[in-house]
């Protein structure tokens, strides 16, 4: 049983602290919302009068707060948490915040000889309720291993992303893809409805193809990330199919801004000679646009 201070009892933090209690840890909680604290106490937690009290003499201190400035203020400002920590306390920030803020916090704690792991989570509040979160941990391997007692109580899997800051960066990249795909999904279903299709049936179709199953663990893993861009599905054909959809939608006066932006990337990839290659070769176009080192491909 570990002594844990937990600061931040929003929907995610409440579920996580409850799961820590259920795992037989001694959990001291603080939140600006007294009712949330009272509910955790009713479940077996301990109320702290301040964030600093929640952090004092604990094995672990966890923050789950809305924004980076909230974490910084809690640690180094009026919250006074940093001064309550000792060299034997492992600080774990599980908030989703800006990478430069994570770096700043890590430097500040390091100057005080306090160890830190940044460990934002993947999953909704419902996933948090079940204790099935994906933990994206950044920090020294020994610190991540030590934090596993906390992670096991709130999550189903921990991925050690690398040094301090990599957990936060991985979460930001993941969130970029999921939030952008959310808009593309909305755009697609509006297009389907505008085209006179049954949306429920369209969803069934999408769920059975790459459109619904996704690319990362499919075409990208098999092809471009494996240094193979021989055409499984040609990029020029993909561009043609996208433009067919854009032209049809235009005739229906249905705006497809994400699709229109994607068509420009396909055009760039074709201009670079990738039209005859697999559609996942669009990744190399984006890499070159970002001035990243060129990839080598089998047979090229």
What does this protein structure show overall?
The protein is an alpha/beta fold and 300 residues long. The protein folds into two domains: 3-163, Rossmann fold, CATH 3.40.50; 171-289, N-(1-d-carboxylethyl)-l-norvaline Dehydrogenase, domain 2 (Orthogonal Bundle). The protein contains 15 helices and nine strands. The chain has helices at 11-22, 34-42, 51-55, 68-76, 81-84, 99-110, 125-130, 141-154, 166-194, 199-207, 210-213, 216-222, 235-251, 257-271, 282-289; strands spanning 3-7, 26-30, 46-47, 60-63, 90-93, 115-118, 121-122, 133-138, 155-162. A six-stranded parallel sheet has the order 3-2-1-4-5-6, sandwiched between helices. A three-stranded mixed sheet has the order 7-8-9. Strand 8 (133-138), helix 8 and strand 9 form a beta-alpha-beta unit. The chain is elongated, with a radius of gyration of 23 Å. The mean pLDDT is 93. Residues 3-162 form the 6-phosphogluconate dehydrogenase NADP-binding domain. This is Sulfolactaldehyde 3-reductase. The active site is at 171. InterPro entries: 3-OH-isobutyrate_DH-rel_CS, 6-PGluconate_DH-like_C_sf, 6PGD_dom2, 6PGDH_NADP-bd, HIBADH-like_NADP-bd, HIBADH-related, NAD(P)-bd_dom_sf. Keywords: NAD, Oxidoreductase.
């Amino acid at each position: 049983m570990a002594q844990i201070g937990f600061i931040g009892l929003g929907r995610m933090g409440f579920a996580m602290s409850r799961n820590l209690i259920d795992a037989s840890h001694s959990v001291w909680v603080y939140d600006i919302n007294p009712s949330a604290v009272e509910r955790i106490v009713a479940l077996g937690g301990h109320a702290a009068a301040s964030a600093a009290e929640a952090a004092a003499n604990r094995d672990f201190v966890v923050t789950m707060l809305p924004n980076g400035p909230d974490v910084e203020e809690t640690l180094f400002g009026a919250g006074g948490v940093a001064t309550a920590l000792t060299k034997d306390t492992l600080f774990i920030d599980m908030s989703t915040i800006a990478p430069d803020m994570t770096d700043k916090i890590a430097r500040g704690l390091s100057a005080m000889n306090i160890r830190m792991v940044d460990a934002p989570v993947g999953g909704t509040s419902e996933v948090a309720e079940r204790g099935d979160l994906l933990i994206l941990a950044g920090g020294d391997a020994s610190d991540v291993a030590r934090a596993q007692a906390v992670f096991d109580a709130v999550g189903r899997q921990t991925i050690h992303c690398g040094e301090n800051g990599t957990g936060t960066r991985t979460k930001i990249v993941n969130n970029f893809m999921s939030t952008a795909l959310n808009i593309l999904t909305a755009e697609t279903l509006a297009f389907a409805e505008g085209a006179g299709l049954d949306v429920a049936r369209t969803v069934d179709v999408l769920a059975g193809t790459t459109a619904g199953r996704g690319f990362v663990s499919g075409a990208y893993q098999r092809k471009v990330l494996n240094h193979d861009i021989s055409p499984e599905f040609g990029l020029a054909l993909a561009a043609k199919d996208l433009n067919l959809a854009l032209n049809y939608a235009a005739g229906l006066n249905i705006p497809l801004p994400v699709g229109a932006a994607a068509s420009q990337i396909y055009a760039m990839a074709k201009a670079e000679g990738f039209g005859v290659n697999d559609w996942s070769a669009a990744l190399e176009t984006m890499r070159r646009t970002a001035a990243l080192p060129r990839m080598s491909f089998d047979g090229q």
